[in-house]
Amino acid sequence: MPCSDLPSAPLLSFSEGQERFRSMTSSYFRGAHGCLLLFNVTNEETFNSIINWFNDLHVYAPPENICCIIVGVSTNAARSRVVTAERAFRLAESLGLTYCETQVKDEQMVLWILTRVVNSVIVSRARRQSLAITIMPNLQQHLQDKEKKRWKCCSS
């Protein structure tokens, strides 16, 4: 997967939306930096589960620390669509997320979605790191000044 100069490869974990994995969600989500919430556009139940997975995700991975995309997946073009793109877009918007669609066999789109999440994680982490670099020197200077003032009253 072509992603900016990564120091390490992304680790992908899949629960396949199966309820039997719900007890393991804490280990899947804890420390996650990116997430794809997928549902089958021909299955209403998978769409309705998105909110539960989203809520579980934010119990273990704070929203400000994670890049997340909702993905509608079409597994079989012959089956009739149950969840409209409009409904999915509205849900994504209400959760503050991006929405896109793909077919399982569309390797280009799947790769684009994965690349987008990984690059969003990289940009987000770089932004936080540069913010820390900006704040830390000022904080260190503030602490040094405070320490000097504290001892100033005792000198004379």
TrEMBL record:
The keyword Nucleotide-binding applies. Keywords: GTP-binding, Nucleotide-binding. Pfam families: Ras. InterPro entries: P-loop_NTPase, Rab, Small_GTPase. One of its GO terms (molecular function) is GTP binding. This is Uncharacterized protein. It comes from Littorina saxatilis.
